[in-house]
Amino acid sequence: MNCEVCQLKELDADYFEVREVLRCILHTIFFHRALGLVRPKDIDLELFEITYVQCGDAKLEKKVDEKIDQFIDRVEKHPNKKKQICVSFFEVKNKQATWFTHKVEHLYWEQWYINLNVAQHPKPHSGKSHHSKLVVDPGESASGRRATLESSLHEVLFQIIKFVNEKKDHIPPIPNMEGVSFPYEITISSSSDSAFGMDMFKRMLQTGHPTMLS
Amino acid sequence: MDFQYNNNHNEHGRNDQIVSQFLLKTLHIVLESRVPYIRPNGRRGNLSLGSQVRKSDKWFNLALGERPTALDSLNFWHRNLMEPMIIDIILVQEMPGLGQNGSGYGALVETVIERWVVQYEYSRASQSHQSSESYKKTYKKSIILLRSLYTMMRLLPAYRAYRKLSSKGKACGFDIVYKVSSFSAPVTRSEEQVMKPYSFIPVEAQHGRLSVSVKYRESLSDFNLETSASLPPEIITDYVGSPATDPFRAFPDHKVATSFPVREIPPPQRPHSWSSGGPFMYNQSPPAHHSSSGRYDLSSSPTSYDVYGQRTQNYRPPTHHSFDDSPPFSPSPPTYLSSGGNYMQSRLRSETAPVSIPNPLITTPRYLSPNLSDPNRHSLPPMSPRSTRYEVSSHESPSVIRSLKKSEMSRIGDLSSASGSGSANHYSPSHKISRDNKDDSGRFSGLLSSSGSPRIGFSRSSSRLSLQDELDDIDFSCPFIVDDVDTCDSPVSQSGIGVKQGKKSQDAAVGALVRMLRTAPPLRQDSSCCSDHVESQSNTSGLFMSRKTSDALEELKAYTGIKHLILSKSKDTKQQHLYSL
């Protein structure tokens, strides 16, 4: 089984927009990957004229909110850095116990990378302005930035739809259950993290032979 | 051989079942996110997790709720899976000025804003190396395709129009209808150019592939859906209360009580939205207007909507079949309520604002009729022209008018028999009337003001007008209460008579005055007449005795004699003094 990777378009968001943007993207991904019986739930964004769909799983909703809180904390602690959230879907394989490892192996078959640039937020310890990685054009108004972000968010959602339609063969069989059907994990990383690249490398090793077919 | 044949047969059957259910599910997804009336219970909501999912709804692991009844009639897709299913989403708008036959209605313009094509592309060549699990793969991939279709439905521009229609109903000025067919109606080249295509990746099936594609309008800004969503309040020029209206026509309850609330709402309204506005205004109105409360009760019923609908003849809802099945909708947005409330507040303000209506008791004499010069006349209202009576208040209800008239009648009776002397007493009864009227209706706050033209003053309310009527009647029926001193030279006696006669009834006063006129001394003095007059009065003095010229001459002679006598006596006295010296 090969691991399909989807790098979503990079988004520039303000501090207060991060939560809505991440909720929208994460839930859209999960709606396409929670292939058990779902009762779709339409959610209207408050800051943007976009309606996204949740799969209606309360547990998943809670998990997503926790991760978003962690992300926001990370943004506060390490501002002005590119942030990334990775949603990974894997299969659990019981690795044969050896001398060194007793872990259960995760075979990742799909990974989504959400890339965010968070604009400087108004907190006093947020960092110095000259270190800011603001991508905001000084001449651009707030409403213009909001419209740009909305358009970009639209594009990201279209990107997700396109990806899920193009890549279907790598998906493992759907278990007979409701809601989220595949195990997943959500990880947060920053571009400056030393382990950022290492995590990527590790995952690439764990997915096994790239030419394996399902 | 038989086993394999059975397997293939099963496979084929399952495949067909998946294809037919796929078509139905696609139709369900498209219609439930485009046509508000398609839901059986009118709900645009999300299913709760605890609700039981019907077996038919579990297909493709996507529970959408109860399937619309319209879809049941489309189950012919089961029979012919090869034909494409074309779903047109049509925007219906009324364009004013394009109506025919002078009907007053605009023409309904239909525009295809989305065209969905769902097809099972049958291909014999695709059935090579089919495994027994092919239908499972088809099913799994169909699940994913339908998920992405569901998401896409909410990202396309037509979804905003659907949401607007769902929330505002007919008030948004357009409608969305659908058309399902097996062939695509030709579209114009211009329409083709503005439509953007999008195709989902087809799902491989046993004998072909399932494909879903759409052509949609990228922008709906040409249809002005945003502007039609908020209709400004309509200003009615022939509102009751205009000077041109006939004041003496009977006020039907609905016109008085509900005309202004009706005018304030946007013309196309649903009964529910109307019922939410009616009671609100009902509670806001002052107590004087609650007499016609029956009409407010009617406002919450669907029948009243037809009545109000008559007022909005310039809008006719489209008569598409899907529209006719529309259920009642939720109440209108608070903007309506706030606009109605503001109107109520402004109306209350206009009612209670002090109006420069003069106290009829203190109007200046120039408004009086020319032949009345007695200052006591000020106690009565002036002889205002008839035209002032035509200025009828729109705020008064008939029952209030009736109650006021009753109170006024009782007080007017008191006015004629009021005690007191002079002009002061005449002020007080009228004063009392105006004050009591204020207490009754709370509307005559300006009645006691001392300035302003009575013409304006008496035009403010119909109840005040009725008071004017009564007071005018007093003018004609009791003109003799006050003294008409023009014809008599004896003001003292006349005033005394007037005082006495003030205590009597009207008829007695008339009789007394007639008697007085009969017995009044003529201008040319006649001693017999005067003496009779004097004697009859019995309190005349000798000063009023008439005298003749001859008597005067005799008196003059007597005085002359006395003068000579005095003069002669004074001469003698002087001579005696001189001689004594």
Q: What can you tell me about this protein's structure?
A:
The complex is a heterodimer of chains A (214) and B (581). Chain A has 214 residues and is α/β, with parallel strands linked by helices. Chain A has helices spanning 18-33, 58-77, 142-166, 194-206, and strands spanning 4-7, 11-13, 41-44, 51-54, 82-94, 104-118, 184-190. In chain A, strands 1, 2, 5, 6 and 7 form a five-stranded mixed beta sheet that branches. In chain A, strands 3-4 form a two-stranded antiparallel sheet. In chain A, helix 1 packs antiparallel against helix 2 and helix 1 (18-33) runs parallel beside helix 3. Mean pLDDT of chain A is 81; it is low at 126-132 and 209-214. By secondary structure, chain B is an alpha+beta fold. Chain B has helices at 2-32, 69-72, 134-153, 158-168, 189-194, 225-229, 253-264, 271-284, 293-299, 302-310, 321-324, 334-352, 398-416, 422-441, 454-457, 462-477, 491-502, 506-519, 527-537, 549-580, and strands at 85-95, 107-122, 174-181, 195-199, 203-204, 208-217. In chain B, helix 8 packs parallel to helix 12 (334-352). Classes of the chains: A alpha/beta (214), B alpha+beta (581). The interface between A and B is medium-sized, with 30 and 28 residues.
